Input
Amino acid sequence: MKTIQFTVLPPPAALSRDIECLRIASHSGNQPLEVKVCPSGYPGIVYQIAEDRTAAIENIAIRSAQTSDIPVLFLHGQGSEPSVMRFRGTPYITIQLVFKPHALYSLFGWDASVHNQGILFPDQFGAMELEKQLLASTSNEERIALLIHFLMEKKEHNAKRDELIELTLAFIHEHIASVSVKELVAAFSISERQFQKRFTRVVGMPPHLFIRVRRVNEALRMMHSGEYERLSDVAYALNYYDQSHFIRDMKSFSWISPKHITMKVSEFHSDLAGSSYL
Output
């Protein structure tokens, strides 16, 4: 990913419970780009603008669908399928607010399962005025301030909390190598049926699927770190049943095999926001 410069910023303190990070990406070249993105389980808002003040992204495709005419500002769900973002051959900047997995519920008051894999346009999440303000802005600092103000207002008027589900998300994060739904149900003294229902409403996908997505993201982070000599070491560290199971999950959520990713390490990027490659 040498052609794209990434900057990851921490969220403001007032939104740190609902935002994972902010990520700015800038591309200065004039060649079209096809960026493959692994699902992270994190929803978010993206503002993407080309040098000519129009949208830089031509379309976004997953295995089951493709969305074209992407607006400069959009909100996306958590997603459990890998996607391909096709950028026009022009310099561009993107600002991405990466939400915590529960933030569509805690910031917007939504049943997150309705928006799992979807893209919402500004008129669908009350952001028409925000889009106008962003288009009139002249610096990333001003754009970030506008985005943060928008989310602070959403939090003030729509905030909901499911404290138990947020605690289970923290538990999953801390024990990603070994956690299971059975262990979560036992640790938090809740029936599996009730847990499945609440987790899916707040996070947007069933807990077993979210764990698989996050475990693959951890594997990608470990592979990118260079600390592991063999793919089998990564699979072992994450308690995969066997290497074929590990490879199958990696292909499901990242389009290509782990071996192919290691061969293309210079075109691979991983940070708090997730993993992607050209």
Q: What stands out?
A: Residues 140-158 form the longest helix (19 residues).
